[in-house]
Amino acid sequence: MAKGAPLTRDYFAEMYVAGILADNNWNVYFPRRDKGFDFIITKEVEGKTIIRPVQVKGKYPEKTKTDKQTYGYRGRLTAVHKNMILAIPFFSTTGIGKSPLFTAFMPFEKIVKMPKQYRCEPAVFKDGNPIPRRDFRKYFDLDGIKLLEKEEN
Predict the structure, then answer these.
(1) CATH, domain 10-147, list 3.40.1350, 3.90.70, 1.10.1220, 3.40.50
(2) Which residues of the chain have pLDDT under 50?
């Protein structure tokens, strides 16, 4: 890492997610000002245009992270929408300078609203690495991207 570079690579995570979506024929639109969603994606499927607002929240565990039964994002979302996707790229404990191990594409109905924050934890953390939880595997990587094409996730 370059001197003074941040330890987390939020912008890298956004560009990575946008890139893999574009690789799968989604159109990616970036806002002029970031006041909510990181970007908007569209795709024509069976004559209908699917539109999904996207927020990206990268997970960058430190080497000292302990095992967790649930692992993912907990915190504020600057904007929410019923058709939005919360994309969570999961990095390993040695993830600086590397691509994510995998990415979850979570539909809004899988994001839990808590009193002061949101929670979406589709993985576990065990032995130094994130692992997709069994009931959420369909939302990861290419399977998750294919689910985005459904009018209702």
Answers:
(1) 3.40.1350
(2) 1, 5-6
> How far apart (Å, rounded) are the C-alpha atoms in residues 101 and 95?
9
> What per-residue confidence (pLDDT) applies to 2?
54
User: Which pLDDT score, from 0 to 100, does residue 63 have?
Assistant: 87
pLDDT of residue 8: 54
Q: How far is CA 107 from CA 5, 49, 58, 143, in A?
A: 32, 17, 16, 13
**Measuring CA to CA, how many Å separate 115 from each of 17, 73, 74, 112, 119?**
29, 15, 12, 10, 10
